[in-house]
């Protein structure tokens, strides 16, 4: 399997994540990628290449133009306004306030374009986010040109980012851009399977009214897990998109046999629909030791999950999402890829 990776991810490394009322070293940190790279090398998966330059057209086609300008200019505006620290959203439009008037003040703009204040932005965030989506795009082109599969080792991750909001460590929704590119390169039906522990709220929102991209997400139930305000089972799509959004929320302590039933159900629905291409939002935070999650998957379970995904026999792009038990992130990620290839 070809692997696409760009070291520019390092440009995004905030000092701080707001967690439990304290600033801590972010869970989503550059070393996560090193663990994956080391494990790939250990397993002799060495077909690793750098991405082609980012193609902004598919990104602009999917996302809000004002949001993209915001991401590009936020750091300079923040500094110009005399802010001393990293960009953290302190004020957000809440119930009863205007949801559609964008302030001029950068502090107000940050809140408008952010849905989760745990996520800081820094000087290099925009460049890193572009390198991340560039890796996803290069993986997509490889598969569209005939490869069975490709793995984009994306960082920062993407699945929480919507058309106009960042949060959950995500800025540009890599998997969504890939799905839309599969449509443009000729696939009529594209499925996105999101196995990250957290609900892929951004991906759901981007395709909620569309019948050409099916979205399925296995995740911690919103009553108990970030992103808290989306991800219920009764969110099934709207308009033409009705029936094309599949949520599998699961409670704290969920073991693999329960999780696997949800996986099998989502796979059966994607296959029965007749998807022609598959995008996997590959988070490995469903692991039992993950520091911010509450499922109970073992490392071998990721191999089994990969095998089940592989049995769909679809052209597949994997986009790296979350996973924070850093030593195990490498093993679990590569287990999915090896299971897929068995
Ligand atoms: C891509 C991805 O996996 N994003 C996850 C974002 C999670 N944001 C909320 C984190 C809450 C962390 N709470 C820490 C409690 C530690 N005991
Ligand atoms: Zn996650």
From TrEMBL:
Q: Which domain of life is it from?
A: Bacteria
Please provide, alphabetically and separated by semicolons, the GO molecular function terms listed in this UniProt record. histone deacetylase activity; hydrolase activity; metal ion binding
Record's keyword terms, sorted: Hydrolase, Metal-binding, Zinc
| Cofactor(s), by name | Zn(2+)
What CDD domains is this protein classified in? HDAC_classII_APAH
Please name the Gene3D superfamilies in this protein's record.
Answer: Histone deacetylase domain
Domain (Histone deacetylase): give its ranges: 28-336
Q: Which Pfam families match?
A: Hist_deacetyl
Family matches, as InterPro entries: HDACs (IPR000286), His_deacetylse_dom (IPR023801), His_deacetylse_dom_sf (IPR037138), Ureohydrolase_dom_sf (IPR023696)
User: Among the record's GO biological process terms, what is one?
Assistant: epigenetic regulation of gene expression
Family per similarity comment: Belongs to the histone deacetylase family.
Record protein name field: Acetoin utilization deacetylase AcuC-like enzyme
Organism listed in the record: Sulfitobacter noctilucicola
């Amino acid at each position: 399997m070809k692997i696409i990776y760009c070291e520019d991810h390092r440009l995004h490394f905030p000092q701080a994540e707001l967690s439990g009322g304290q600033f801590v070293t972010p869970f989503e940190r550059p070393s996560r990628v090193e663990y994956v790279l080391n494990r790939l090398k250990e397993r002799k998966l060495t077909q690793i290449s750098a991405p082609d330059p980012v193609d902004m057209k598919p990104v602009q086609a999917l996302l809000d133009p004002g949001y993209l300008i915001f991401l590009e200019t936020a750091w300079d505006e923040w500094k110009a306004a005399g802010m001393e620290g990293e960009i953290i959203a302190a004020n957000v439009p809440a119930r009863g306030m205007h949801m559609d008037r964008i302030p001029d003040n950068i502090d107000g703009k940050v809140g408008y374009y952010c849905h989760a204040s745990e996520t800081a932005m820094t000087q290099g965030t925009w460049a890193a986010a572009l390198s991340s989506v560039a890796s996803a795009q290069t993986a997509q082109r490889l598969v569209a040109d005939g490869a069975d599969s490709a793995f984009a080792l994306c960082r920062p991750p993407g699945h929480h980012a919507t058309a106009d909001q960042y949060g959950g460590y995500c800025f540009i929704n890599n998997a969504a851009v890939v799905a839309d590119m599969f449509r443009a390169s000729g696939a009529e039906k594209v499925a996105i399977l999101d196995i990250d522990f957290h609900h892929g709220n951004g991906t759901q929102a981007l395709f909620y009214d569309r019948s050409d991209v099916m979205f399925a997400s296995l995740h911690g139930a919103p009553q108990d897990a970030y992103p808290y305000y989306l991800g219920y089972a009764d969110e099934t799509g709207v308009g033409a998109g009705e029936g094309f959004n599949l949520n599998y929320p699961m409670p704290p302590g969920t073991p693999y046999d329960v999780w696997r039933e949800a996986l099998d159900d989502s796979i059966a629905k994607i296959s029965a629909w007749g998807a022609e291409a598959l995008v996997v939002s590959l988070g490995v935070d469903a692991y039992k030791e993950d520091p911010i999650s509450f499922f109970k998957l073992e490392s071998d379970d990721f191999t089994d999950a990969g095998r089940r995904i592989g049995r769909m026999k679809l052209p597949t792009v994997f986009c790296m999402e979350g996973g924070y038990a850093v030593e195990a992130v490498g093993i679990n990620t590569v287990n999915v890829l090896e299971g897929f290839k068995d």
